[in-house]
Amino acid sequence: MKAETPKKPAKPVSALTGRLHKLGIYNDADLLLHLPMRYEDETQVTPVAAARPGEPVQIEAEVEHAEITFKPRRQLVARLRDDSGALYVRFLSFYPAMQKLLEPGRRVRAFGEVRSGFWGEEMIHPRLQAVQEGEVLPDALTPIYPTTAGLAQAALRKLVQRALSRASLADHLPEALRRALRLPGWERSLRYLHQPPPDARLAVLEDRSHPAWRRIKFDELLTQQIQLRRAYVERRAHPAASLPPRGLLTARLIAALPFALTGAQRRAVDEIARDLTQPWPMQRLLQGDVGSGKTIVAALAMLQAAENGMQAALMAPTEILAEQHYRKLADWLAPLDIGVAWLSGSQKKRERAAMLARVASGEALLVVGTHALIEDTVGLERLGLAVVDEQHRFGVRQRLALREKTSGRLPHMLMMSATPIPRTLAMSYMADLDVSVLDELPPGRTPIVTRLVADARRDEVIERVRDACREGRQAYWVCPLIEESETLQLQTAVETFETLSAELAELTVGLVHGRLKPDGKAAVMEAFLRNEIQVLVATTVIEVGVDVPNASLMVIEHAERFGLAQLHQLRGRVGRGAAASTCVLLYAPPLSPNGRARLKAIFETTDGFEIARRDLQLRGPGEFIGARQSGVPLLRYADLEADVDLIEVARQAAEELQARHPEAADALLARWYGGRAELLRA
Length: 682
Ligand code: ADP
Ligand code: MG
Prior knowledge:
Elements: H1 15-22, H2 28-32, E1 38-40, E2 56-69, E3 75-81, E4 86-91, H3 96-101, E5 107-117, E6 120-124, E7 127-130, E8 142-144, H4 153-166, H5 175-180, H6 186-194, H7 202-206, H8 211-237, H9 249-256, H10 263-277, E9 283-288, H11 294-307, E10 311-315, H12 319-333, E11 340-343, H13 349-361, E12 366-369, E13 383-388, H14 396-403, E14 412-417, H15 423-428, E15 434-438, E16 448-454, H16 458-470, E17 474-478, H17 486-503, E18 509-512, H18 518-529, E19 535-538, E20 551-556, H19 564-571, E21 581-587, H20 593-604, H21 608-625, H22 627-630, H23 644-660, H24 662-673, H25 676-681
Parallel strand pairs: 4-6, 9-14, 9-15, 10-12, 10-13, 11-12, 13-14, 16-21, 17-19, 17-20, 18-19, 20-21
Antiparallel strand pairs: 1-8, 2-3, 2-5, 3-4, 5-6, 5-7
Helix pairs in contact: 6-8, 8-23, 8-24, 9-11, 10-11, 20-21, 23-24
This protein binds adenosine-5'-diphosphate and magnesium ion.
């Protein structure tokens, strides 16, 4: 157990230690969990004449000749010979030590792939090692570890060997449970993976389906589940204000709405109402595809807080969105005589001061804003509920900052996201959240038709825009994402605005982009909403949440450059009214395989969950949520798609372990997360 506590570096970190840290290795336990990515078979020697091109083999031979040549460039070339034949080894970069190793007459082993080259049969950059008289071959496959510059495989291997001989290999899984799950023992599994016997089947080792691998993955998932359960339990130990539904304001808002809530909305409202009643902080994610109507659900929750005399805040990632929420809320709540305040970074000093005063005095119980809300000057001492819209756009810190507004009792948290989270992800990384899903769109929406059009046909697309606007509809024209340069992106948007203005002279074309002053941005959006602008040229600032029901056509230029979630979000800006909507994805061939896969996915489905699933496949969970986002360590070995069966089992096992063997649960956390578990909880 002792070896598993991370040692804080007391003295300056050595180069070796620094490199190990880079690999996430802080102690022996970390070394043991640093598992090979593949293996090489050095248990056998292949005669030179029997080496087949393209197959990694080990040969043992005598150096016949070696020289440094300069044609076509500086390189070290040597001829090696055994009883069966000879081949060349070639190094484009080399150290003096290698020259020494390759002095004529020496015996060496070389591991690599043979190919036919300029000199005849050759190995390029094989792994070389000197052979001493009477030296025996290794009796295990050679593990190849993920490593970093300046840390040689051999050194890493030695460190792992040492850890195997001195660190705890205790099996933290109760024997009965292990047997029930038909998993091999921990020590056996670890040893097998670090030192597989020569007859081990490389295929099942490398695709990680071997039982030893399953055991590792299971423990990883189990530990993650334990961590999540603890966070869940810990949260419930904090006090929060109980805000039971009093039916005063909420009922009046529902009665005044121009529409009836969908079944899914009603369910979500009920779930949230129940959570708010509890004396511990809610942590709920409201998931619903674009246009599913999350805002009204949030508004009802905010009113429930207000009914109890508490403040509620709604934070949105962009000014446009925050302002839109503010207007909508003010509009809905006007008949109820409930004050709403609004805060943004760009606000005039005087307006801001007035808003802050309304918040501080309690005249406005509801506050809407951008991250300007989390600034210290904003007094939300009576904050009972914090709503975070498009939560994936905020970092953990920003989301948590709202929670720190109060002293003593924590506010309830409602996170909203239109980026659906695949079930496997929700079960693993997000298990600390309760989830409500809006899986039903408000009635009267017509499905969006998606078209893929090569950019050579841009002119036809412009005609489509003209036709749509002639029929009284409106269109978005989204300019390409230019990752390297924001300036370039802006320039493109301005140019597109100019050409479209010229080509569609009879229409009013507007332009909105990130560099516009918030006032200017709001004015353009307002004009678009009132149909004073028919075609809105935009950068991705319109990506989230913007709601203009009359816009029924969206054109996205260089769609191949956008991420899948982003395309889905953008497309969701249309199809919000009753008219049939179209999304035209302009692309520039040739497409990369990944770009093609993304366009195919977005073309084939409008189901946010299916899109999220494919996005997860294309990008992997790290990219998908980011460790920073989730606050939960990323899985290193288990795969959410391939090991979904293990996730289910791990969930149950975590519960059992936590209840009946808490010390084993502790030991697992220490083994997998070491000192990091504490950090993650913060
Ligand atoms: P999102 O989930 O993308 O945030 P919004 O909350 O912006 O969706 O809602 C999209 C549009 O649908 C808004 O104009 C909203 O007023 C409207 N809406 C919400 N719920 C309903 C409903 N039950 N019936 C009809 N329209 C609704
Ligand atoms: Mg929204």
